[in-house]
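To the team - magnesium ion complex, inputs and output below.
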Amino acid sequence: MPRAAPGEGYERIAQVGEGTYGQVFKARAEKSGALVALKKIRMEAEKDGFPVTAMREIKLLQGLRHENVVRLWEMMVSKNSVYMVFEYMEHDLNGVLAHPSITFTPAHLKSLSAQLFSGLAYLHRRSVLHRDLKGSNILLSNAGVLKLADFGLARMYAKRRKGDYTNRVVTLWYKPLELLFGATQYGPEVDMWGAGCIFLELFTRRPAFQGNDEIHQVAVIYDVLGPLVPADEWPDAEKLPWYDLVRPAAASDGLAAQTAEERFKLAFEKSMPPAALAVAFALLRFDPARRASAAEALQMPYFTTERPRAQRPAGLLASVEGEWHEFESRRAARKARP
Ligand code: ADP
Ligand code: MG
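Output:
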């Protein structure tokens, strides 16, 4: 891999991210002038050399090439730090959704979700689980292109048999029931639940299921989708290790007679057209075996036949003042507070 000369390859412009294991900077390549994002790998905490999570992220990303997956150009060593050098993306989804004057049209929303599912379909075809889908890990360019980023929790998975993986993955609000119930054998369906949450969030502009802890998270999901009835929709759920542990106390609230689909419609029909509702509902199935894959979602009428046609939000994003990542929008929110 090509390596820039220490301290002279890139000129730092600004910080754009503060992550779990390092800062992210916007920078310009001194020779080509290209903009890049430098993700600094935090080494202080590591006694035994290079951090495994970073190693995993680098290895996975090096094998991935897709329009909707962020491109890792190279690694760079400068002074005592190691950086991942990425193509630069002006915004992330959290920054953009928090911005009051960025309003997507229905055609934009269709394009963004199609790009999200295309990126995921590619990852899953290549046997990669992302395992940390959320707005801050989804990047957007001024050209209206969406890319999946942050492969710090990603891993390869076995397609033919169920692997045994850690369930300590995915940010709480985007966690599917199987992970909340403690499953360690899971597959790409965990990403598709998260994709369903983000799909809703694109329309409503707020995270769909905002729990405070694992038990509350299950309760919040049941509030919207109705409580899980294992016998009807997912018998194996009861076999999962934490099923009894995280079950909300009482689940009857007078609405129990409604089907999950009716309940769901009631909650979201004001925010999205029926064809989009059908996509969300197919992704937010409790039983992972019944949940739509990314490729299946892309074949639904919302994407194939329904009007309007998808359109990239290019002009819209290019016309906003500033660049909006979660980092800047948090800083702006702090400033605005009295
Ligand atoms: P962490 O694992 O620390 O969360 P991320 O890869 O998610 O690291 O990066 C942190 C933040 O930095 C992201 O939420 C995003 O706002 C910003 N960022 C990451 N990669 C890029 C990039 N290629 N271009 C522009 N901003 C980026
Ligand atoms: Mg991140």
